[in-house]
Amino acid sequence: MGRAFVYVILGGGVAAGYAAHEFVKKDVPHGELCIISDEPVAPYERPALSKGFLLPEAPARLPSFHCCVGSNEERLTPKWYKEHGIELILGTRVKSADVKRKTLLTTAGETISYKTLIVATGARPLKLEEFGVTISDADNVCYLRNLADAQRLVNVMESSTGGNAIVIGGGYIGMECAASLVINKVNVTMVFPEAHCMGRLFTPKIASYYEEFYKSKGVKFVKGTVLTSFDSNSEGKVTAVNLRDGTKLPADMVVVGIGIRPNTSLFEGQLTLEKGGIKVNGLMQSSNASVYAVGDVAAFPVKVFGDIRRLEHVDAARKAASHAVTAIMNPDKSIDFDYLPFFYSRVFTLSWQFYGDNIGEAIHFGDYSGTTFGAYWISKGRIVGSFLEGGTKDEYEALSKMTRLKPEVDDLAELERQGLDFATTV
Ligand code: FDA
Ligand code: NAD
User: Fold this and answer.
1) Which pairs count as long-range contacts for 374-383, CB under 8 Å and 24+ apart, including other chains?
2) 158, 279, 294, 411: most buried by Cβ count inside 10 Å?
3) Among the listed ranges 129-143, 210-224, 289-303, which one has the minimum average pLDDT value?
4) Are 5 and 33 in contact (CB under 8 A)?
5) How far apart are the C-alpha atoms of 300 and 287, rounded to whole Å?
């Protein structure tokens, strides 16, 4: 049994939703495009899962956050896909791919063939088992990647009101979930191996601001150590977390955010991989001309820095998806993707944005005891990255434009003095 499509999007997350939107803008004929997803729902804005979805009052629920509401575009409900002749093959996992034959095989035994494939399989959370810790699949140990995980986290959180949550990992998931847990009246202790939170991006000074803010909300930090084992009760529920330094922390629930691995396994040995992802060119095309890759799973040339990167952020997934579809549908007009990395987060009343690269020397500016402050990163005499907390829309736009220009700076003291004014006047 089998079906044939001209275009197949494998994966039904953020990149899939934005790709479908672009296909429709390019007048894809009815019946030519399908999306295959192992999730049971149409593509949605994944960032909502660690923010609005976890709110105690009026939480975000589907269909409110289907793509592409995250960039103020229309909301693509299942009805929208139907009206535009796009087949949504949901709750269906692809178990193997044959790029020579241009076919995908689902776990239900169906073969789906394509002329052009867009791989948008995203990533999976790293599991504690991969670090030698067992029973992390206990009922009250939560990971967060998809809607089912988020619903489970809500249920566990609701049954832990007034109790203790241990958050393992000081990255994005750790920081955003810790804030949501506090808002839900759960006591939080964050445990991570680095000297400060958001080790991949923040400087110690930036991290210190957020850690102090979190402490003022009651969050405790245990840094420079990892967990080695769990204590559990007769029902299999975790009751305490044991750390390498010998500490035992009582726990009603645990949230784990220790990084991700891109879902490349279907294509290993068939496509060229780099940086843990599927290597693509500036058109998001892989080493096989019929296969494109976008989102968390793709390693693409970042022109502005002249290297290949894999970005794990929603803006890159959205824009790369649109770019790939333009390259597929209008090959004569296609140009190389020219993307400036952009990351953001919102926690409590705080909100920051980052553009570019965090290499070289960091110059901090603004009021670190107030609400608006930031940093520039200078490498080889040029600004290559910028960060701002508490900015306005215009200030963030100015920061983005300035960073893209990579302006030369020779007087770092003057740059520090000018601070945000430097970006708004460049
Ligand atoms: P995504 O993970 O969105 O989609 C992949 C899809 O493929 C899933 O539906 C998956 O089930 C499916 N799939 C995988 N293998 C399959 C198979 N074999 N068969 C069928 N289906 C398969 N970024 C940011 O910039 N700001 C933010 O605030 C946040 N917040 C945030 C919160 C949370 C909780 C998470 C988990 C992530 C974020 N992110 C983020 C990151 C952002 O969501 C992420 O970069 C994008 O979702 C990537 O989009 P993709 O489409 O590549 O993967
Ligand atoms: P991450 O890479 O941001 O952070 C991983 C953290 O895990 C590290 O900071 C470290 O503290 C910790 N860690 C690593 N090994 C550990 C170990 N053995 N024990 C304990 N801690 C360990 O990954 P994440 O926070 O899991 O986020 C998952 C994905 O979701 C990422 O791709 C991220 O970009 C994405 N995400 C992004 C946002 C955003 O952009 N605002 C929000 C949520 C999630």
Assistant:
1) 374/399, 374/419, 374/420, 375/203, 375/205, 375/206, 376/409, 376/415, 376/422, 378/409, 378/412, 378/415, 381/408, 381/409, 381/410, 382/406, 382/407, 382/408, 382/409, 383/356, 383/407, 383/409, 383/415
2) 294
3) 129-143
4) yes
5) 12
Cα 34 → chain centroid: 24
What's the token pair of residue 94? 């692809």
The best mutation among 124, 297, 314 to test binding of ligand 1, ranked by most ligand atoms within 8 Å of the C-beta, falls on 314
**Helix-helix angle 172-183:147-158, to 10 degrees:** 40
pLDDT level of residue 299 (50, 70, 90 thresholds):
very high
Model confidence over 112-161: pLDDT tens digits? 999 999 999 999 999 999 988 986 678 999 999 999 999 999 999 999 99
Q: Relative to the CA of 16, which ligand 1 atom is closest?
A: 51
Using a pLDDT cut of 90, give the percent of the chain over it. Answer: 95
Q: Give the phi and the psi of residue 161 in degrees, each rounded to 5.
A: -55, 130
pTM of the model: 0.98
Lowest mean per-residue pLDDT among 129-143, 313-327, 373-387:
129-143
Which residue owns the Cα nearest ligand 2 atom 12?
169
38 C-beta closer than 6 A to ligand 1: yes
Rounded to the nearest 5°, which phi and psi values hold at 420?
-60, -30
Residue 195 pLDDT class (50, 70, 90 cuts) = very high
Residue 136 has what pLDDT? 62
Using CA atoms, how far apart are residues 99 and 117, in angstroms rounded to an integer?
9
Total number of residues shown for the chain = 426
Closest C-alpha residue for ligand 1 atom 38: 47
